[in-house]
Amino acid sequence: MDRQDTTDYEDGNALAGPLGELFTADVTAAAGRCAGCGHTALVADLRVYTHAPGLVARCPNCDAVILRLLRAPDAAWLDLRGTVYMRVPLPPA
What we know:
With 93 residues, the protein is mainly beta. The chain has one helix at residues 16-20; strands spanning 10-11, 31-34, 40-42, 47-49, 55-58, 65-71, 76-79, 83-87. It has one domain. It has one helix and eight strands, in the order βαβββββββ. A hairpin with a 5-residue loop joins strand 2 (31-34) and strand 3 (40-42). It starts with 9 loop residues before the first strand and ends in a 6-residue tail after the last strand. The relative contact order is 0.24. The model has no long low-confidence stretch (mean pLDDT 91). InterPro entries: DUF6510.
């Protein structure tokens, strides 16, 4: 698989604002496991491509698509099929 040019993407912190509209927790601190290679990484460490309609986040290890986020004026679509799980840290209850 060809890797994308490293100047074409931003780090996963680019997802903080858009995902912050959907979740109250800081999702960039969440850890997820790639369904493609099994690598576990923080959302902040994903490679985020902003040149498509919406945001596409890829695994920093194998470049597989981890998540897609598309925002419209009245709805958001979040596709996590490239993720085995996502562990979101929560503050103590």
